Write a sequence for this structure.
């Protein structure tokens, strides 16, 4: 057993870190956490700028097969996520690059791959997902938005919700009911659509801090070319499972917490209370040390997943465990810091806020990782059912 | 990066698992923990024949010359079976001998340890139970060709059956408690030593050892006079990782037993494992076990290749302490009333989760090391 990266891997990892470090000075001061790219114009602009920079290096196609213009391998994706996480650099469309591209590679027709992959790699098209509906969240298969085939088009009617960045995206992908009388899991189709198509209305939903990282999307007789599907008509559930099966290492999230922990240590060392640094308080030392230990545990589990992925081995159970663990660590970290900061932790980004208001934001944004991408409760089901072999809920 | 066990490690693991499954059933664990000796000499001999006590001892001293990481692979299997006896205290006490021993000391002690002919333990803690240097008050004073040791050590594992002890004693008092600590190889049967087994939660034979003018030849000073504390710190770090590996094996069994039981036990016309209230607890148990595992593997790897790993070892120990206690607690809870009985195996693990926590430093002790290592002033 060997945790050491090869010399070549170390060099590649350093290359990603250097590139992200170089972008850091251009980051807007208002960019706190990852959600601000959707809420603030200057952060979205920075996201697009970084995306173009990465596209020039072909880093949006890491791990893709060479015939579709891909370079690098699974470890490169991990290093790149780690570097971006550490420096808080956006530029990778989590929907287009992170979710759709691997889905297309695994499940789409040659024609669709040739049409949609290059604009993703070139950062020419930004995507959003059209997944959940008001009455279909974790139990996604009961969704009710219809896409009825008429000639060489689908006509879409209904509503999607919790669509992160839908107000910024050029295109959207999602599952729609194409056979309203069909059986559950056999009536859905995975469709790609231009968000500028007439009949689409995007309404931002205010998050608890009033800005809107996500939206609801209404469809009123929206005409979509019937060729723009992934997989078979009424075979969308299989594609959903392909997408849900992509195992994320969580390395980016861990690296982001690494960086913020370094800043926390600096803050605690430099901030006095009662005439001595906060870092001297034994309770604070203990609590921050606990966070540091848990962060190291999250990191080593991420390595484990990367190691499995690098050998093309299944990491389903570990990936679910890692998602539960790092996301809830994010909650604990934010809650702990709010305790330590006291009333000053309540202050938003402003001249009064400690650490640029990071924790006021983090304590609200922490739900993004615990609820999205399969809630942590669903992840626990996955561990229990597919990992431990416990009886499935009917 | 390759986080799989090597082929040799897989062989070692499989051999250990098969051997312990046959030779160390839970009936033996119960018999041994109730026996005055606290170990099975027959089993000890068989382990010695497999070379386990000498696994990391270099071949020139009749050991197997395996790596530290290999040892953690074996110890994980020992943890699975909660093998009672002086294995952990002997192998961890061997580290200071290998690290600081003179050639003569190594030639005298290591081959005997490797053969299973010498049980070794470490006398470090005293009544206060602190692992900081301030806790070392047992004194050793030079007199002629000897040192004379006086005072009382506590929590000395298996001292009542040990042949030798590594005794950590104060040889000089001063402002800095870490200066003036020395280590001695002490014959456990030397005149003036009184040893009593303390009754403890895991029946792991922690002893009080009283030293009353115990004379130790100067040749048995281990390392340099007054400069023993760095050796103690290395011993604690390596021991913490070894204890973590043992706990990982035990945690794995706690999860396996609980999942298996929840599939068999029927209530409300279905196995209780079908209830999500229990499924999510078991998912969390598995997650805690798996996060612990790779944390420990990383620390063990770093120690094995000689990288500084004080931070990683302390991170692992403080995390594993909490994980093992929680997993064992939930394992008992999910077994219901049968889980709290002496005759059910799960309670054997629960009791050991508490003693594993205390050994080589509790959670807060290691968190303070982590606090320093991450740069808190």
């Amino acid at each position: 057993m060997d945790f050491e990266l090869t010399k070549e891997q170390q060099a590649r990892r350093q290359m990603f870190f250097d590139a992200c470090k170089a972008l850091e000075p251009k980051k807007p001061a208002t960019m706190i956490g990852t959600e601000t790219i959707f809420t603030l114009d200057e952060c979205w602009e920075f996201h697009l700028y970084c995306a173009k920079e990465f596209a020039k290096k072909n880093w949006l196609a890491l791990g893709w097969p060479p015939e579709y213009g891909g370079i690098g391998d699974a470890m490169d994706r991990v290093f790149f996520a780690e570097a971006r996480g550490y420096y808080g650099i956006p530029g990778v469309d989590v929907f287009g690059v992170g979710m759709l591209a691997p889905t297309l590679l695994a499940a789409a027709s040659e024609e669709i791959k040739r049409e949609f992959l290059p604009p993703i790699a070139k950062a020419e098209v930004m995507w959003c997902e059209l997944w959940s509906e008001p009455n279909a969240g974790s139990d996604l298969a009961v969704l009710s938005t219809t896409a009825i085939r008429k000639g060489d088009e689908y006509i879409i009617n209904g509503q999607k919700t919790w669509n992160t960045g839908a107000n910024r995206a050029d295109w959207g992908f999602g599952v729609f009911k194409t056979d309203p009388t069909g059986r559950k899991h056999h009536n859905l189709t995975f469709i790609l659509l231009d968000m500028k198509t007439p009949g689409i209305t995007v309404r931002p939903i205010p998050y608890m801090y009033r800005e809107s990282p996500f939206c609801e999307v209404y469809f009123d007789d929206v005409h979509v070319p019937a060729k723009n599907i992934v997989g078979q008509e009424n075979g969308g559930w299989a594609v959903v499972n392909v997408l849900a099966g992509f195992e994320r290492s969580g390395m980016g999230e861990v690296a982001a917490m690494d960086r913020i922990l370094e800043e926390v240590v600096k803050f605690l060392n430099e901030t006095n209370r009662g005439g001595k640094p906060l870092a001297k308080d034994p309770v604070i030392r203990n609590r921050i040390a606990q966070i540091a230990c848990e962060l190291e545990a999250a990191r080593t589990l991420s390595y484990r997943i990367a190691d499995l992925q690098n050998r093309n081995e299944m990491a389903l159970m570990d990936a679910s465990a890692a998602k539960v663990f790092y996301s809830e660590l994010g909650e604990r970290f934010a809650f702990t810091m709010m305790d330590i900061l006291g009333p000053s932790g309540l202050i938003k980004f402003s001249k009064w806020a400690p650490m640029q208001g990071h924790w006021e934001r983090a304590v609200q944004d922490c739900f993004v990782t615990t609820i999205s991408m399969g809630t942590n409760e669903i992840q626990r089901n996955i561990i229990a059912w597919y990992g431990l072999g416990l009886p499935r809920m009917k | 990066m390759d986080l799989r066990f090597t082929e040799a490690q897989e062989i070692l693991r499989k051999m250990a698992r098969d051997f312990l499954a046959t030779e160390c059933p839970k009936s033996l664990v119960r018999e041994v923990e109730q026996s005055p000796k606290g170990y099975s000499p027959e089993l000890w001999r068989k382990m010695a024949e497999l070379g386990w006590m000498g696994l990391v001892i270099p071949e020139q001293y009749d050991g197997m010359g395996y790596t530290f990481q290999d040892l953690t692979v074996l110890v994980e299997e020992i943890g699975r079976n909660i093998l009672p006896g002086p294995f952990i205290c002997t192998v961890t006490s061997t580290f200071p001998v290998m690290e600081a021993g003179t050639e003569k000391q190594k030639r005298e002690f290591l081959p005997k340890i490797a053969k299973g002919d010498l049980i070794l333990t470490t006398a470090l803690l005293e009544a206060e139970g602190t692992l900081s240097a301030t806790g070392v008050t047992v004194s050793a004073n030079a007199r002629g060709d000897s040192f004379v040791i006086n005072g009382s050590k506590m929590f000395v594992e298996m001292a009542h059956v040990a042949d030798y002890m590594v005794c950590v004693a104060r040889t000089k008092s001063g402002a800095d408690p870490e200066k003036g600590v020395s280590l001695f190889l002490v014959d456990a049967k030397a005149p003036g030593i009184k040893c009593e087994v303390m009754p403890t939660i895991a029946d792991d034979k922690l002893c009080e050892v009283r030293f009353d003018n115990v004379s130790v030849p100067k040749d048995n000073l281990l390392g340099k006079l007054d400069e023993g504390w760095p050796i103690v710190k290395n011993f604690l770090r390596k021991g913490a990782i070894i204890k973590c590996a043992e706990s990982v094996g035990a945690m794995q069994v706690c999860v396996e037993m609980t999942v298996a039981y929840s599939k068999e036990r029927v209530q409300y016309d279905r196995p209780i494992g079908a209830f999500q209230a229990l499924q999510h607890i078991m998912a969390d148990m598995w997650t805690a076990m798996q996060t612990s595992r790779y944390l420990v593997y990383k620390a063990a790897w770093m120690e094995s290749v000689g990288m500084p790993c004080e931070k990683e070892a302390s991170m692992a120990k403080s995390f594993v302490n909490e994980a093992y206690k929680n997993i064992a607690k939930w394992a008992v809870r999910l077994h219901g009333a049968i889980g709290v009985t002496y005759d059910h195996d799960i309670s054997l693990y629960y009791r050991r989760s508490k003693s594993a926590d205390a050994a080589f430093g509790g959670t807060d002790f290691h968190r303070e090391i982590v606090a320093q290592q991450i740069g808190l002033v």
Remarks:
- DSSP finds twelve helices and ten strands in chain A.
- The first helix of chain A runs from residue 7 to 23.
- Chain A has a mean pLDDT of 95.
